[in-house]
């Protein structure tokens, strides 16, 4: 009887140990899965989608559905649209069709597209959304009224758009910048992401005194938000930082003459200008250079605006006149082409980021 009792006791102890081990492993796995879902696993590889300058007309509205179908089917952490969610106000015609620029129904339709994304969807405002609405067809709008509507509809609460959401920190949480709820940041793994409201059309500078005042306030807010992001990324030990805005800030305007010649002017038979022209991006580019050099780790600036996919290194030192090696620009593809960019992040790699243009077969041009 004693042997039987001893055997039963050992079996019970073994079973209890096994059960506790299984329970512990399940708890550990559950905790890990929850952290990965929230984007907090240190050093984990992940991917996300970059799109912009779409959909513009009736054709592209149909093609955009093909893009989102592929994106929805992919294993992605989130989707970022870097602005111009509809056609330029001046270029749209009834012949090209689709939702007309800047109208209330267009706002509702595009918000519906963003909210239908299966992944968290982060939207960055472009000039087509408000700044260029003064010249929209078939009717014009007050740009500042459209900007207020855009902020109210697309940038509220503390989460992204989409069926699944992620938490965002908004600049408007600081009462000094209460209007700038479109400027957000979030962290995925060891990488910090930040959006800035920098737009095409010269950043809305130089059209009217009223628009110049809008530019000055927004530009100041952008510079503060960017500097805060770099400071936080440095203090938190982030492996890299990505900045997303709509505007191509015209890096080439700051290039040394020899770079301008090699990169773009020589093939056109043109010479570099003797004097640098002033733009609505000058303060931003100066601050971007300073923060990038001080950070010393990979910095990526993503924009739309020019509609041409490219990955290059267009930031040059204002003193050295040489390439700033830890900076990369990614320009997303856009109208008339309808595809998307896959961003691959591996914090264990020296460059952290890799980018690949994903051609949507259903949208391929029949040459």
Structure description:
This protein is of the alpha/beta class. It has 2 domains: 1-38; 43-363, Purple Acid Phosphatase, chain A, domain 2 (4-Layer Sandwich). Helices cover 36% and strands 15% of the residues. It contains 8 helices and 12 strands. The chain has helices at residues 2-38, 58-73, 104-115, 143-154, 200-203, 209-236, 257-265, 282-295; strands spanning 46-51, 79-81, 121-123, 169-170, 184-188, 191-195, 240-244, 299-303, 310-312, 327-331, 340-345, 353-358. The protein has a 7-stranded mixed beta sheet, covered by helices on one side. A 5-stranded mixed beta sheet has the order 3-2-1-11-12, with no helix packed on it. Strand 5 (184-188) and strand 6 form a beta hairpin. Helix 6 packs parallel to helix 8 (282-295). The longest helix has 37 residues, at 2-38. It is globular, with a radius of gyration of 24 Å. The model is unreliable at 1-39 (pLDDT under 50).
List its traits.
367 residues, alpha/beta, Purple Acid Phosphatase, chain A, domain 2, 2 domains, seven-stranded mixed β-sheet, five-stranded mixed β-sheet, 8 helices, 12 strands, 36% helix, 15% strand, globular, disordered N terminus
């Amino acid at each position: 009887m004693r042997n039987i009792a001893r055997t039963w006791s050992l079996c019970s102890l073994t079973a209890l140990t096994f059960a506790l081990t299984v329970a512990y492993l399940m708890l550990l796995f559950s905790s890990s899965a929850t952290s990965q879902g929230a984007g907090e696993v240190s050093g984990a590889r992940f991917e996300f989608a970059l799109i912009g300058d779409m959909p513009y007309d009736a054709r592209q509205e149909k093609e955009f559905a093909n893009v989102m179908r592929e994106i929805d089917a992919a294993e992605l952490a989130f989707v970022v649209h870097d602005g111009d969610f509809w056609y330029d106000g001046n270029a749209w015609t009834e012949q090209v069709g689709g939702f007309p620029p800047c109208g209330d129904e267009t706002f509702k339709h595009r918000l519906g597209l963003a909210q239908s994304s299966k992944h968290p969807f982060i939207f960055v405002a472009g000039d087509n959304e408000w700044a260029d609405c003064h010249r929209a067809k078939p009717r014009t709008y007050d740009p500042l009224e459209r900007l207020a509507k855009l902020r109210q509809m697309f940038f509220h609460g503390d989460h992204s758009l989409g069926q699944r959401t992620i938490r965002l920190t908004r600049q408007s949480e600081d009462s000094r910048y209460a209007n700038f709820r479109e400027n957000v940041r979030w962290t995925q793994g060891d990488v910090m992401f930040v959006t800035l409201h920098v737009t095409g059309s010269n950043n809305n500078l130089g059209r009217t005194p009223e628009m110049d005042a809008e530019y000055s306030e927004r530009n100041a807010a952008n510079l503060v938000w960017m500097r805060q992001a770099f400071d936080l990324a440095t203090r938190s030990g982030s492996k890299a930082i990505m900045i997303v805005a709509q505007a191509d800030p015209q890096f080439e305007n700051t290039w040394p003459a020899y770079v301008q010649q090699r990169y773009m002017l020589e093939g056109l038979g043109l010479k570099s200008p003797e004097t640098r022209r002033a733009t609505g991006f000058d303060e931003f580019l100066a601050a971007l250079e300073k923060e990038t050099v001080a950070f010393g780790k990979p910095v990526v600036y993503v924009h739309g605006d020019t509609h041409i996919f490219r990955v290059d290194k267009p930031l040059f030192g204002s003193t050295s006149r040489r390439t700033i090696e830890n900076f990369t620009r990614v320009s997303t593809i856009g109208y008339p082409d309808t595809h998307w960019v896959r961003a691959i992040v591996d914090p264990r790699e020296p460059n952290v980021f890799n980018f690949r243009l994903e051609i949507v077969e259903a949208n391929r041009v029949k040459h």
